[in-house]
Amino acid sequence: MIDTPTMDYGGLSPIIALTAGLVIVLLAGLVSPRGNRWLSSFLTLAVLGTTAGLLIWRLGEPEIDLVSGALRMDGLAITISLMTLFAAAFAVVLQLRDPGAEEAGHAETHALMLGSVLGMVMLAQAENLITFFIALELLSIPLYVLCGSHRTRPKSLEAGLKYLIVGSIGSATLLYGMALIYGGSGSTFFGTIASSLGTDLFDDPLVLMGIAMAAVGLAFKVSIAPFHQWTPDVYEGAPTPVTAFMAVATKAAAFAVFARFFIEALGPSYEQWQPALAALAAITIIVGNVGALSQRSLKRMLGYSGVAQGGYILVGLLVATQAGVDAMVFYLAGYTLMNLAAFAVIAIRERETTFGDDVAAVEGLAKDRPLLAWPLTIAMLGLAGLPGTVGFMGKLYLIEAAVGGDYTWLGVMIVIGSMISLGYYLRVIAAMWMKPAPRLRPAIAGGAPEADEEDAAAGSDDVPGTARPGEVRPGLTPAGTPSGGRCWLVLGAMLIATAASVFFGIFPSPLVDFAQHAGQALAVAIG
Predict the structure, then answer these.
(1) Half-sphere exposure (CA, 13 Å, Cβ side) for 153?
(2) CA-based diameter of the chain, in Å?
(3) Mean pLDDT of the chain
(4) pTM summary value
(5) Across 52-195, where does the E strand assignment appear?
């Protein structure tokens, strides 16, 4: 007789809420007009808010195993899940005027995003190799579609296809590694794998090969060099709200399971994988920062920046201490706030100007749109790790964890990487505050009458609903349609992320307490 697992519906309530909400949003899109962005957005935000409330309700409660130990509801799962929910809600707001979402349909894109969030929540709770892989694919497959959802943009289709191919290679490599680990340990449960490795399998060639392949597969997902080549292209090609969501939420969920798998399941073999991850972290910090120096595309620059940030975060993981996990989660939370604020400004300027995501789109922004210039400035300073921002405190905690874990040289690498990063972060700040706004066709005094006729045909003030070439009108696209740049929801979300980046840089204690829930969840495995 088959024993059915005991179901704790209270612990499973966030997953149930997301699953039910996904179905409701998708059905609402079928019965409502295609262009009804407000209904779909409201329902999606309601689902995300309900799920967040259920997770907060569990915060501070005793840890529980779910579905016969396949999932675990603990501090690590809750903190990471809340980050992904916040990132998803932010992306939903950014999609209100997004042409990619308009083209693909808001209900469809929101349903895909909820499916990806469901995978992230399950991934943060995974305690079993099978659950681990299913959750990872549930996270990834909707993102492949979302990256290519703006079908009229060739770069979007290219990004979706490239992410699909590289993501499939990463998943296959990870699955092969899991199979080898299962073959050596005889179990798919993290606790049993750790017990097997703690006897005489910690240096078994089969298991070591499995660990190496699992690390490579996860490195693809979190953009660790040299497995990062897809990141800048996909970031640039995907619709900006999707890029914003993917850049922070995917990294948070993947690092959560990375930490749980390597510390809980593979902890007894830490002497084998720790030096390898340390080398990868150092390479990633240098490659990411150097690669970003030559970029004019803001999204590509943030893609390379994300690679470097992944190297910093990996330092907190590989030291395998409670302080390291706390620092990792703290930095992930700060990285989420800073990146979302930056991508919000990029999304608005991408729609308001003809420069796309080029640095030229933000030139002269301080004079024309200070409400956008300040958030992007603070985000750049925070990502560079300057004092007064959450990025500075996050890097400080990562350096302390590295020194405490006898990896002082990695702390030095974090400092060196931060110094290199000033070269491209300050370039963006200089463009906003020290350069005039570009004009494609400056007016010429005493020009011929034919020029006035050309101006009218091209969209002068005499042609209603359009702008002069090179003219930027706040809140409107060059075609005269709303860009979201004056929408109080978009601006409010951006300002909240910016204010939080500064607040937690000056008063980090609330975020430290939040991050410590994650470290406490792995305290037993860390020993």
Answers:
(1) 22
(2) 93
(3) 87
(4) 0.91
(5) 64-66, 71-73
